[in-house]
Amino acid sequence: MSKARSAPDVWMIVSIILILAIGLVMVYSASAVLAFHEFGDKFFYVKRQLLFAGLGIGAMFVTMNTDFWIWKKWSKLALIVCFALLVIVLIPGIGVVRGGARSWLGISSFGIQPSEFMKLAMVLFMAKLLSEKQQAVTHFTKGLLPPLGIMGLAFGLIMLQPDLGSAAVMVGASLLVIFTSGARLAHLGSLAMIGVLGLVGLILAAPYRMKRITGFLDPWSDPLGTGYQIIQSLYAIGPGGLVGLGLGMSRQKYSYLPEPQTDFIFAIVAEELGFIGGAAIIVLFGILIWRGLRTAMAAPDTFGSLLAVGIVGIIAVQVFINIGVVIGMMPVTGITLPLVSYGGSSLTLLLTALGILLNISRYSR
Questions:
Q1: How far apart are CA 132 and CA 302, in angstroms?
Q2: Residue 195: Cβ within 10 Å count
Q3: Mean pLDDT over residues 292-319, rounded?
Q4: Which has the higher per-residue pLDDT, 222 or 56?
Q5: pLDDT of residue 200
């Protein structure tokens, strides 16, 4: 195994910095009205975002210069700690309820979301496990069932919060790692059918999820209830046109569109910067994902390759679901747009993960 290290992928660094910079500008633009109304300080959200972005960039610099093989050694411990946090957050009085889900640990407005940490921990562990048992992954019981069982347990704990969005991202990224490791399509196809049936069961078991589906299919059937977010999002996107209304000129952020700085920030981007602004962000994410996959293909070993795929998967699945929700192509799930939406632990952790991806690129063949 060669230890010769080169410079990290420049395309990846540039795309990360540009997306993050656009995100900071848009967090301020989308949240200024809300922040002034709630806290009397229009810079409230962007100041916190700057703090976490600074912490995240520092963490990214550290992980970018730390050999990625070290994470193989600590992956099992990281997974155990994250499982413990997922259990602790469910305890009443300890876990903090926000947005109807008991998914936060912290004090007051400062907190962490254990499910965010589980995404990275699961990808790390999957990469370690499957790189060591690559020959067995074609066998269902010996190679495929153990990682699926671990993933299923984490999924169940996250759904107890409940947080379908985070669970979906974790499962999506994990399945990409499993597929890349060489699992049989017949096995994965059968599991996909079972998963679809399970998802239908979860939706039918919770009335609020069923309302989200009906609100997605026909938002105008309940314009002030389940269809409200989608309708207001489309009201933001429509007037944006080609070039937008202008930075800071959004009308939907004036208490019409819920969570304009988090889940629906892409709608504000489309309203203020138009099709060109929205397309620019999608192109930047496309570059980041492309360079990440290129890093995975050129990684020096199987562990690095699978880990790179997992990190790219976390980003790609989140981008796909978030933008799909904002433009009305998917039901509302509560997933933020990576590097753009307001969020402390998610932003810091994602930049940490991207630092690991950049370190893998330093060893690419």
A1: 9
A2: 15
A3: 95
A4: 56
A5: 73
**pLDDT, position 258:** 85
- Residue 105: beta bridge partners? 112
What does DSSP say about strands 101-107 and 96-98: parallel, antiparallel, or unpaired?
antiparallel
- As a whole number of angstroms, the distance between CA 272 and CA 265 comes to 11
116 pLDDT higher than 50: yes
DSSP H/E element including 173: helix 164-180
Q: How many residues does the chain have?
A: 365
Q: In the chain, helix, strand, coil percent, each to 5? A: 70, 5, 25
Residue 105 to residue 127: CA distance in whole angstroms: 27
- Write the CB contacts of 26 (distance below 8 Å, at least 6 apart in sequence): 265, 268, 269, 272, 340
- Rounded Cα distance, 152 and 122, in Å: 11
Mean pLDDT throughout 317-340?
Answer: 90
Sequence-ordered list of residues with C-beta below 8 angstroms from that of 229, at least 6 positions apart, any chain: 257, 258, 264, 332
Place of tokens 């690095």: 304
Q: Are 274 and 241 in contact (CB under 8 A)?
A: yes
Q: How many CB atoms lie within 10 A of CB 96?
A: 18
Burial label for 177, CB within 10 Å (0-12, 13-18, 19+), is buried
User: Is-contact 295 364, C-beta < 8 A?
Assistant: yes
**Backbone angles phi and psi of 93, in degrees to 5:** 95, -20
pLDDT digits (tens, 9 = 90+) for 202-253: 667 766 667 767 777 778 877 877 788 889 999 999 999 999 999 989 999 9
Burial of 100 (0-12, 13-18, 19+ CB in 10 A): exposed
CA distance 150 to 165: 18
Q: How far apart are CA 261 and CA 17, in angstroms?
A: 19
Compute the distance between CA of residue 87 and CA of residue 249 in angstroms, rounded to an integer: 43
Both ends of the chain: CA-CA distance in Å? 11
